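Re: weekly structure request thread

Next one in the queue (477 aa):
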Amino acid sequence: MTDRVLQNFVNGKFTDASDGRTSDVIDPSTGEVYAQAPVSSRQDVDAAMQAAANAFEGWRDSTPSERSLALLRFADAVEKRADEVIEAETRNTGKPVALTASEEIPPAVDQIRFFAGAARVLEGLSAGEYLRDHTSMIRREPIGVCAQVTPWNYPMMMAVWKFAPAIAAGNAVVLKPSDTTPVSTLLLAEIAAEFLPPGVFNVICGDRDTGRELISHPTPSMVSITGSVRAGMEVARSAADDLKKVHLELGGKAPVVVFDDADVEATAEGIAGAGYFNAGQDCTAATRVLAGPGIAADLTAALAEQANNTTTGGLDVPDAYFGPLNNPNQLARVEGFIARTPGHAEVVAGGHRVGERGYLYAPTVVSGLQQDDELIQDEVFGPVITVQRFTDEDEAIRWANGVKYGLASSVWTKDHGRAMRMARRLDFGAVWINTHIPIVAEMPHGGFKHSGYGKDLSMYGFEDYTRIKHVMSYIGT
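Done, posted below.
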């Protein structure tokens, strides 16, 4: 039953879509419609872009300390209203409440605070005389209006990763959340409105057509998207027509390379925790295990045990480690991968839907796969861990790098030299050693190859949201 009617948030206030179109917002844990969201048209995009462009004229001239203070107060308000944010996020995604409270709210607040502080320490080359009788200096300036699109797997967190560096750098934002998960992003915009000038942070809801209007609009100077490879390529093509700056984070297929000297039980527990978190709907998820010849059998058995002991459920299951897949299409995608498991492979745990209500899928382990199998090559984006048995370090590297993605990876070994060799050779934007998935605000997140380009988080996260200007002054007599 629908009990909420959502609106866009433009120029500091909620507003309906111009033509009144709406779409259903579904609770993934029940499969039931619980809200209606606007489907924005070109007219709505125009209004949001105009608001952002107007706001940018003043916001770009604000001092770093003013931007920092506004974001710090915003972070405090999010922390104070955490229960509201958690309710919005969990109802919209089906995620476990306790995990959202402990694993998502604290880092999201911390990341806003990080960019609040980082705004005050942006640097360029020192001023100096590089040509006789001339002094040169570097200005790092905001780039303008930023068009941003976020995915449905971490709607609140990904919104923070987008708007926090952009706003901290002095830009104005028009952000479109996924059509299936707009609720928490709209709440963040409402909270931010107390501390930011109207138009600095705008959120418009809609479908793929809305996103295309956003990306192709002439106003933004840069576009940033976290999503599928297909979507990223479409965005890059569209942005190229107007020479917009582009930041793309497009998914992954993280190799988890486990050598024979690793502790089987501890490694299996770590992999399961990082593979099944958020139902495996994580671009960095530890879902592609490459195991050494002496450990492969025992590790596969330990992973199957971990899968069988992992509790899943909707919002009414307090000890659930993960909730449902986000939508029926994603459930069908995961089911399709498992249904097409080749004959030489074996589903040793899970491999089925849980219940008939909502979109829950059992923690799954598949062994015996070969390098060219689609379960190895393609991103499943579900609670499915695969296991391959390699023979030596060189083969492990070939298989690890032998996919189109390059976002994240991990190595599990007690041999420090081997770990460092692997870290150097792995063609991925992040390499964890004897762990997988921890992310901190101070370190960059972003990939290579079909995982896209640009960095979220850290000081590197400002690169896409600023531009460099050289100023030279004649000082001769």
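The longest helix spans residues 42-59. The chain has 15 helices and 22 strands.
Next request, please.
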